């Protein structure tokens, strides 16, 4: 796949928001309550960009086709887990992975996850924590495929989420 992965800039916010709106509608059509409560929103994306958490994926025509936030900070919702994290080491939190659903590209979300893992390794951090809704079949498949370990349940904005962690090897073995 010939894609570019880079930090999002404030100039990207409207396009990122359009992708997130697609994701919000997709989850709604699937009958999920995930992303149906006003989150995420443009202010969340602006905060991602201002803190250098936001990353976009562009195709060979420089069109933004995906977005993910990778946050190098403690996620308060992860402090209490019904279960156990694999480690309590420093970690990156992943949120808001979305891809273009109007012109879908098979394997793009997996490609994004591989690239974000490499970015995290480049920062010499070896742990990723992430959560998703129990009915987000696409993300659950990706976590399984990429060897993320189910650790338990966390509560995010009052709703239970399935929590996963992956320990990255220093050689980045996929």
From TrEMBL:
PROSITE patterns: GNAT. Residues 3-173 form the N-acetyltransferase domain. InterPro entries: Acyl_CoA_acyltransferase, GNAT_dom. One of its GO terms (molecular function) is acyltransferase activity, transferring groups other than amino-acyl groups. Coiled coil: none annotated. This is GNAT family N-acetyltransferase. It comes from Faecalibacter rhinopitheci.
């Amino acid at each position: 796949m010939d894609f570019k992965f880079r930090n999002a800039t404030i100039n990207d916010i409207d396009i990122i928001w359009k992708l997130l709106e697609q994701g919000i509608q997709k989850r709604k059509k699937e009958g999920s309550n995930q992303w149906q409560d006003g989150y995420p929103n443009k202010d969340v994306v602006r905060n991602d960009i201002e803190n250098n958490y936001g990353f976009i994926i562009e195709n060979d025509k420089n069109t933004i086709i995906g977005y993910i936030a990778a946050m190098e900070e403690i996620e308060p919702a992860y402090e209490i887990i019904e279960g156990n994290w694999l480690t309590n080491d420093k970690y990156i939190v992943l949120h808001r992975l979305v891809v273009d659903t109007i012109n879908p590209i098979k394997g793009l979300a997996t490609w994004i996850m591989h690239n974000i893992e490499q970015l995290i390794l480049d920062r010499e951090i070896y742990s990723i924590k992430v959560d998703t809704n129990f009915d987000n079949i696409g993300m659950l498949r990706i976590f399984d495929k990429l060897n993320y370990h189910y650790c338990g349940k966390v509560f995010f904005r009052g709703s239970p989420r399935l929590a996963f962690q992956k320990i990255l090897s220093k050689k980045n073995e996929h």
